[in-house]
Design goal:
Chain lengths: 143, 281
């Protein structure tokens, strides 16, 4: 009887371990997917907000490969978006955002990079410098 | 009184029968547990692989777009087959001639997965619009050979590739010095038949490419569906109108699982996703 009881106990424990393992993996996959969606949204929102920003003034006469740091955005604690603008051509700039999430210890747990291609200039009838997204503006980052 | 030692035959027989009974019960219970574990693992594996397919497609498709010169990046070949320009990265073209293009060694490696490969990849070269910035497009160019080391005007290091550009296009379009290029490869993501049933795979459309299996087996009917939708959210198969795709993938477990008392069969599951094409207007 002891043997049978031990057998059933072992079976219960292994079944429990299996279910817990599968659950943990699925929870982690689900959480990573949600983090990616959140980071994607944060990066894109930061790019949209950057479009009419103060960085535009520093683009005047900037040679190709000039990089301009744009103030970073802290969306909420442990979710930050770093921004930069880089001159690619005479008036074409790449705005890029790197959104990252960190755990309570400050270790990065997920990151997403995205870019937008914009043209900077004075576009009539406007009389002030502005940035406009070009056709096919969006770029995914490869890490 | 004689001391009794050992066991009688009856006692041994009872012990053997009891051991056999317990053993057979244990074997049956072990078998059931193993089957339940295998079943759970198979189902979990199926769901995981279906989700992975949706993830792969979402990642690949969201870069697609369209413009007036290069057209739309995608073409629905059949309900379960989609051909598209798979974006592989951004480059900066520092010199463009009718038969060569030099790509500058830029500081943008985070925005490409690798260097362009001749014969496999093609370019989309940015054409500047007018002063309103509203008429802009991308010009498709083949990459025929390369790369070889070269220098950009101004001395920047770069890579030279052979291409084929119509001379008329050089004068018709405003291709800026230090212009933008996206490079891509044509791929077909579809359900294909294999010895173990329909599977999902991605096939490069350059010479010599083969189908790369991604997941399967799929359900024989309706295993993969691409449903394009337009700006209004209505179903559309017109490439230029499509701004997103609804994706449905239906798979089967690769082994037969218990589906009822004494019944075994592959178990079906499905995953769905929706992707908005970020570069479609």
């Amino acid at each position: 009887m002891t043997l049978v009881a031990m057998f059933f106990l072992a079976a219960l424990v292994s079944a429990g371990a299996l279910v817990t393992g599968v659950g943990v993996v699925e929870l982690r996959q689900g959480r990573e997917a949600i983090h990616r969606v959140v980071l994607d949204g944060a990066a894109e929102a930061a790019l949209v907000r950057t479009l009419p920003g103060g960085w535009l003034a520093s683009t005047l006469g900037a040679p190709s490969r000039t990089a301009v740091a744009v103030p970073a955005v802290m969306v909420r604690p442990r979710l930050a978006v770093a921004l930069e603008a880089e001159a690619i051509g005479a008036d074409v700039w790449l705005l890029h955002a790197s959104a990252s999430m960190a755990d309570q210890s400050g270790n990065r747990t997920a990151a997403v990079r995205a870019g937008w291609l914009v043209r900077v200039g004075v576009f009539p009838p406007d009389t002030v410098l502005s940035a406009r997204v070009i056709r096919r503006p969006w770029l995914p980052g490869f890490e | 009184m004689t001391a009794r030692r050992g066991f009688s035959l009856i006692e041994v027989m009872i012990a053997l029968v009891a051991a056999a009974l317990i053993g057979s019960l244990a074997a049956v219970a072990t078998g059931r547990l193993q089957m339940a574990g295998r079943s759970r693992a198979e189902r979990s594996g199926l769901v995981g692989s279906l989700r992975a397919v949706v993830g792969v497609l979402e990642t690949e498709l969201r870069s697609l777009g369209n413009d007036s010169v290069s057209g739309a990046d995608h073409q629905i070949v059949a309900a379960n087959s989609l051909t598209f320009r798979a974006h592989r990265g951004l480059v900066v073209a520092c010199r463009v001639a009718v038969d060569t293009v030099i790509l500058a060694l830029d500081r943008l490696p985070a925005f490409r997965s690798r260097l362009p490969a001749s014969g496999r990849d093609s370019l989309l070269l940015y054409i500047e619009g007018d002063s309103t910035g509203t008429i802009d497009a991308w010009l498709p160019l083949p990459i025929l050979a390369g790369p070889t080391a070269a220098s950009c005007p101004g001395g920047w290091p770069g890579w030279l590739y052979s291409t084929r550009l119509a001379a008329a296009d050089l004068t018709r379009y405003r291709i800026p010095p230090f212009g933008l290029g996206r490079f891509f490869e044509f791929v077909n993501a579809r359900a294909y038949s294999s010895a173990t049933g329909p599977h999902f795979g991605v096939e490069g459309l350059s010479a010599g490419a083969v189908v790369q299996p991604v997941a399967g087996p799929l359900r024989p009917a309706g295993g993969l569906e691409y449903l394009g939708f337009d700006r209004a959210g209505s179903a559309s198969a017109t490439p230029f109108d499509v701004v997103g795709f609804d994706l449905v993938i239906r798979g089967l477990t690769s082994r037969d699982l218990a589906v009822g008392p004494g019944l075994v069969a592959p178990v079906a599951d499905s995953a769905r996703g929706a992707v908005r094409l970020r570069n479609a207007r």
